[in-house]
Amino acid sequence: HSVRYQQYTALDSGIGAPDRSPRERAARERAYAACQEWLQNTGGRYESIAHLDDIGSRSNKHWFLLNDCTVTSRRPTPLLHSVSLFPFPTANHYGFALATHLQIRTDRLMTLLPLPPDCIALEELPPSECPQGVLMELLGSLQHPYIYPVLDLGFFPSDSHQYTSLVMPFNPRGSLKDLIYKSQWNEPWSRKYTRKSTCLPLSQVQRLGRQILEALLFLRERGIPSHGHLHSGNVILQNGVARLSGLENGLLGLNSRVNAVVWARSAPDIDNIDVICFGHLLFEMCAGYELTSPQPTPGHYQLDLERYPQVVDVLQMIFESPDGRYPTVEELVLCDIFRNIDLREMRGTCVPSFKHGLSSSTLSLLNAVRRRQGAILSGSYSEGSSPCTPPSTPRDRKTGCVLFV
């Protein structure tokens, strides 16, 4: 393997790691076995490189580094000079190169996790429909410069769990949270965000913020329900561009760790969730730490955002509207801080229009997701199935140290 993978040359099942409890090691062992089972069912397309550490906050989620060994064919091409060494005519003899099969190895990141008992895709679709096909029709159609793609997806039973696997492009730059904390993408989540964080310059906040808003606009235009899982860990940075990920979470009915959703139970409309989450994300980019209150206080504005008066205006627009109304994503795009950002990634980009081309099964799934999210916000859905989990452990904004457990 290449130099950057030297630490992963032996696939780690996590069995011998001294800092893991027996329960954690058993969970990793089960996930490793499930990964091997899934790889066998792909017909040799993927090869394992590493069972990664827990690089995200979801406790039952596992990450694997893969090689995608896709085989492609190359058509015969004319040759300028051809000398046949064979006594019988060949393609080369007539001045053409033989068609060859090229094996292209590409690094991929795969996530594996057990599905919740009330997975929307499995509950709402009829038995005759293939959940994998319906979800890939939807996710595969969301092609946009500011959306991180899902390349492959699978459902399969293993032991007592129903697992789902998602394959995405590998990106060594990591997430927006990795940028804020100057962390490496492959460090354990429990450690990499305890170090001192940094505040992003205003120009970067403007550019990344506008790109995230453009991604949310795209989803709204395509009839996708609220993202609901918008936080800095779900914003992937690729060549300095923000690309929104985690779209599959809401479609599968997975829990969310978003602080803003936990404290926004009084939000009157489901459409406000992403706007509230964007406000929390904007605060984190400027202050260098997650906001651990429902909204910024005067102390936050004076101590942490003094250098960002334009950001303060946006946050007050989101959280302190005189009429109690949250702004729309379209209204946020028109704010002075985001209005004139050059979206060079959008130049010449042909964004597919598939809104009216989705199958009836996919449209039914989107409606089911929307109903589920609405029921959760209205309080009519069972608490055990709520997509909101307690917020992450608050940390000191200067040192990054844990304040309480």
Description:
This protein has 405 residues and is α+β, with helices and mostly antiparallel strands. It has one domain: Transferase(Phosphotransferase), domain 1, CATH 1.10.510.10. The protein is 34% helix and 14% strand. The chain has helices at residues 22-41, 120-124, 131-141, 176-181, 189-192, 202-221, 247-252, 259-262, 273-287, 298-303, 309-319, 329-333, 336-339, 360-378; strands spanning 46-51, 62-74, 100-114, 152-158, 161-169, 235-238, 241-244. The strands form 2 sheets. The protein has a 5-stranded antiparallel sheet with strand order 1-2-3-5-4, with helices on both faces. Strands 6-7 form a two-stranded antiparallel sheet. Strand 6 (235-238) and strand 7 (241-244) form a beta hairpin. The model is unreliable at 1-16, 77-99 and 380-405 (pLDDT under 50).
- Low-confidence spans: 1-16, 77-99, 380-405
Tally of distinct domains: 1
CATH fold category name: Transferase(Phosphotransferase), domain 1
What structural class do the secondary elements suggest? Answer: alpha+beta
Please identify, by name, the CATH architecture: Orthogonal Bundle
User: Helix fraction?
Assistant: 25-40%
Strand content: 5-15%
Order of neighbouring strands in the sheet with most strands? 1-2-3-5-4
Helix-strand pattern: HEEEHHEEHHHEEHHHHHHHH
Organism: Anopheles christyi
Protein name: Protein kinase domain-containing protein
InterPro entries: Kinase-like_dom_sf
